Task: structure prediction
Amino acid sequence: MSRPRAGERLQPAPVRCILPGMRRLVVHEAKIRCSQGALPSLLVIPESPVLSDDKAVGTVDDHKPMRNIITFGMCRSPSNPQVAAATSAALGVLNARRALRRRRSDQRLVERLDLHLRPRRHDRHPRSRDRHRDQIRMRPPARSRSAAIARARTLFATLALAAVACNQGAAATSTGSAAPAASTLAPTSNVYPAPKRIVAFGDVHGDLDATKRALKLGGVIDDQARWSAGDLFVVQVGDQLDRGDDDRAILDLFTSLEQQAKAAGGTFLVLNGNHEVMNAQLDFRFVTPGSYATFSELTSDAKAVRKQPEERRGRAAAFNPGGPYAKQMAARPIFAIVGDSVFVHGGITMKQLDYGLDKLDQESRAWLAGERPTPPQMLVAEDGPVWSRAFSAQTGPDDCKELDTVLGALGKKRMVMGHTPQKPDISFACDKKAVRIDTGMSKYYAGNVQVLEIVGDEVKVLKE
Result:
């Protein structure tokens, strides 16, 4: 950015870092142009000992985050959902690319800073120092390499966030849409276009009778438990296992319905919940004696299976990673995006988006298939996607803000989840953006059998 002449009107121009060896001057009231055509902003230098043409002059190091770059004409405060979503998206982009860029950019920056901070010839001669006093006054004070790198990164990141937020706000203003566009944080796997009709139901926990009642209520099966729904899209949000004797029968029914639905042009999509993950970890605290008996004929030479008590070895052989039922679960995702709805057992937060939903899903599948020794820590964490209750139990304002940010980053309207029993009915929170469909329909919880129906933008609860 060049220094203006007296009375000259500055033209909008992008902010750029002026490399060492150049004057590195930035003039007060210089205009910053938003890359997507929004109104320009002014750069204000709050403190500067130097004036040029009656305007304060500083360097790029005089930048004060969130203080001296006035908001772009079409941008708003972080309370604006579009700006908040765009900011979160930009943070994710920066985090995703940081590891790739850091090594190369650090090396280049250190070399430039070394060159700039190295004593120059005129610094060692008093007469020359007087002659070059202005240039010396404008130099940034000496500092450590790490501090200089950190300051430079802060400047670049803040400018990038401001530009992305402005672009997002401008796009929302021009289109009039309330939902921000999906960011690069959005996954590419387990994503389906909006079908004509979606039926979703929650945790069934080893109760085959309640499972069939829910499927009939949604118009999914006939009296012989055969697929009768044509091109219907069905989602079960996890927790088929534990607390009841029929969990193996439920798994077998779901496998059959997956095949029948595909043949009829429909979809029967089953997600993994925390109880599926627990069984793959050979955590059998919630298994009933009757359920142990249904797996008794299965065997395995795996050391982890042989260490189990004899009555548990059949179940351990079934669910130990690489076992027959564990491989079935490896073919099923931990989340799905269908049209404008995000389906998950527990909940998805920005923590999982930053980690990468595709990455987490692939790692989880590899572990269940026996292709990696341990589950990803993000999967089994208390706030992980199969364990989180952030949006399904005592949801507060901060939780709703988090949900808004997540849905904004994904470009979706609602999140549908199970995991936390709702009594007596399916419930909604956060302006109906959080849909909690676990009604505790199994015998263990003695809740009501209900399913969720989504047709276009209409969301309806179906009851017996």
Observations:
- Residues 1-181 form one domain.
- The first strand starts at residue 26 and ends at 27.
